[in-house]
Model the fold of this input.
Amino acid sequence: MFLTDEEKRMLAGDHGPGIERAMDLLVKLGDSFDAEKLVPITYGHISYDFCPEKFWNLMTEGVSKTAHRVTTHPSFSPEVWKEWGLPLADKWLGEHERKLKRFKELGWLRTETCAEYLLGIVPRQGDIVPMGGSCMQVANNSLFGARVDRMGILVSLAAAVCGRTPLMGLLLPENRHASHVVELDDLDVADWTLSHYHCLGYYIGDQVPGFKPVAVNGLPPNLPFDFARALVISMPTSGSVTLGHIVGTTPEAPTLEAALGGKKPEHVIRVGKREMTQTWERLNVWDDDHVEHVAFGCPHSTIDEIGRIAALVEGKKIKTTLLIGASAPVEALARRQGWADVIEEAGGHFQPVCPSITNPFTRPDIAGDKQAKSAAADSARCAHYLATVSGVKVFFGTEEECTNAAITGRWKGEIPQWK
Amino acid sequence: MEIRAHTVSAGKAEGEAVVYNGPFSFLGDLNPATGKVPVPRHQLEGTSLANKVFVFTTGKGSSGGDFAAWAAKANGNAPAAIICLESEPVLSGAVIITGIPTVDRPEKNVFELIKTGDYVKVDATRGIIEVEGK
Done:
C-alpha cells in the first residue's frame, strides 16, 4: 500500500504507540483487500463502551486531541442500571468511567447514538465516514450517499485515531452499484408498518451473499424516512449488506438503471407472501405467551416513534419492563413534548444504550437473577440480537402489538395477513 | 492434500475442522463464554468452535464481530484458524486484531474437500491449507 511520508512516520511510532498500533492495523487490513492507499476521513465514529479496555488503551496510548470530529455509538449507563436494582451493574462501572474519561480528553463528542442523523450530524453525499455500527453504516451509505465501507467497531477506533481509512470496498464509486435486485411479487405495501419493512430487510440480508450492494425495486417513491431506515438497517443483521439502494427514494437510486450503474443484475431476488411469512415466523422464537420485557429503539427512536408509544401507554401501567433506546437530545425533545414523562409514569425507561445487544434488562451479565427471560421487539434487528446475544425468548411484531404486550404482559401478536 | 489460498491474517494453526456452508458472525453466532453456537435452529446449534479450524462462506452481521472475537479469544474459545470463501472487512479486522490465522479465496472447493472432523493445518502466512490423510 502507498503511504505518504507522514503516514510512514505514524507507522514508525513517531506520533506515539497508539497511532503506531492503529496504523499497523489499518495497513494490514488495507493490504488484505489490496487497497491502493489510505484516505483522510471527513469524521469518525467509534464505540468506547463496546471496546475491550485493553484494546482501547493500546489504541489511544499517547494520542492527543484529534483535529477531526469523532462521535460515539450508544453507551452504557451502569450507574442508572444500579438504581434500577440490576444486580451486576456494579461490575460495568469502573471500566465505563475510565474509558469515558479518556474519550473526553481526546475532545470527542458524546453523541452516544446509532442514529446521529437525528441529531443533525448528517454526512453529505461522498463524505468518507468510517464507523462502527453496521446499522449506521448502512443508513449513512444508503440514505445519505456517504462513503462508508463495512468495518468493525475496533477497526473504526483505529481509523478515528489516525484520521485515515483504507481506500477500499464501498469507498470506491465503482463498487457502489447494485449487483442484486429485489423485486416484490404481489405484495401490497399500503398498510405496512415499520416492522413489515424490518422483516423485508431481514429477508433480503439473508439472501444477498457477502456484502454486495442491493437495490430494492417496486416500493412507492419517496418512501417515508423511517420506513426506508427500517428496511436498510435490518439487512446487515441477517447478512452483511452495507449499501441498500431503494429505487425512487435513496440518492444513488433515482432509477433502477442508475442503481445498477447501467449493468445487468447478477441476481434477482423475488419476495412474496410466502417469504415474508416465513421470515416473520423465523423472527419469533417463543413457546408460551408470557412477555417480561419490551424493547424499542433499534435503531435509536425518532421523536415520532416516541410520540406514538406515549399515546398508546398514556394513563396505563405497564406489566413488563420497557426500554426505549434513544439519544439524549431526542429524549430531551420527548421530555419537552411531555411524552417522556407519560412513558416513564407508565413504567417505561429511556437510555442511550443499544437496546438489542446490550439491553440491561435481558443481558444475564447485567441483570443477573433479575434477567427478563422473554422480550418483544418491533425491529428485526432487535429481535435477532435479543435471541442470540441475550439468549431470551423473543416475540417479533408491530409497535402496537409490542406496546400491548407491555401493558398486558401477554403476547397477542399475529402473522400479518399479506395483501 | 494441499490447497492454496489468500492470506487474510498471518500465522499458523491446526485442528479439527468444523464445516458450515453459510455465513458467520462472531457476534451472535459464537457464545464467547462457551465457544458454542447459540443460535436457535442453526445447523451448528450447540457445536463448539473453540480451537477448531472453522470453514464457512463469509462474514456477516454486526460490526461488533471484532469485539466479540476479542472476548472469545480472551476466554480461549475462538477458532484456532479460519478458512472462508471470501472474507469481508468486519471478519478480516476481527481476525487480524485477535491474531487468528485466516485464509480466504481457496483455489479448490473446500466444502467438497474438507469435512467436519477432518484434521486440518492452516499456514495463513504462506497461504496453504493441508488436509491430513487426504
Remarks:
- Chain B has one domain: 2-131.
- Chain B has four helices and eight strands.
- Strands of chain B lie at 2-4, 6-9, 12-19, 53-56, 81-84, 102-104, 119-123, 128-131.
